[in-house]
């Protein structure tokens, strides 16, 4: 596997970062995960804009312009022969003085790597009925995940939650709880007691004819796939609104789904061991999402 590191494309065993890099020491950095389809990163501009805003907030100056990074990403995809993959882009503050102060950390580290991606579904009408179970099927069958509620909480209104920082300990611990419970994903509540997002994905649920999702102000990461799902709802004439939701109300909804770059739209099969309704709207949105990916990467 070839990896991009600070302007060079090198074999992964040569892609070495200093043990004094602040990304390693403190999680002092940002990352983005993009779905690559037909050899092209889906919604590159939106991901890079979020990275830019995060770098501006953290006061990290990227050594590469977005256009240069896009060219390097294309080179990496071609050289690895991975036109259908996941692209991980990481920007850390680099090496500085010992301690929390970012002084003299003047040479940020930039890494891009490619990873296998779940298989995209075939285009066409949404399949009837409920979704088959789980998680990482390579057959193209729609995934349906077991989800639990994590014991960890996210601060409401936290500005840092708007960016994909490298310090994601609450999400890591929430996913560890899901692993221990034999689940595929974990939902997190915020400090106001509302369910806001999952460890690695954004949350949606269905109330009647309306698709609902928590607001950015509640403490969520404004996902690129989340934005695409909202766009799709509007294009299909499906009502969509931002709203708060408590755990018990969420379980009584007509369906729950998650959005994330790797899988797109994923139905939740169960929450805390309770079977969930499976609205056919979820299948429609899922296939519409992949049609959007195909059209923008054609």
Structure characterization notes:
With about 300 residues, this protein is α+β, with helices and mostly antiparallel strands. The protein folds into 2 domains: about 1-115, D-amino Acid Aminotransferase, Chain A, domain 1; about 145-295, D-amino Acid Aminotransferase, subunit A, domain 2 (D-amino Acid Aminotransferase, Chain A, domain 2), CATH 3.20.10.10. It contains 7 helices and 15 strands. The chain has helices at about 20-25, 45-60, 65-80, 170-180, 225-235, 245-250, 280-295, and strands at about 1-5, 10, 30-35, 40, 85-90, 110-115, 145-155, 185-190, 195-200, 200-205, 210-215, 240, 255-260, 265-270, 275. Strands 7, 8, 9, 10, 11, 12, 13, 14 and 15 form a 9-stranded mixed beta sheet that branches. Strands 2-1-6-5-3-4 form a 6-stranded antiparallel beta sheet. Strand 14 (about 265-270) and strand 15 form a beta hairpin. Helix 5 (about 225-235) packs across helix 7 (about 280-295). Mean pLDDT is about 95; it is low at about 125-140.
Features of the shown structure:
D-amino Acid Aminotransferase, Chain A, domain 2, D-amino Acid Aminotransferase, Chain A, domain 1, alpha+beta, 15 strands, 28% helix, 2 domains, globular, single chain, 298 residues, nine-stranded mixed sheet, six-stranded antiparallel sheet
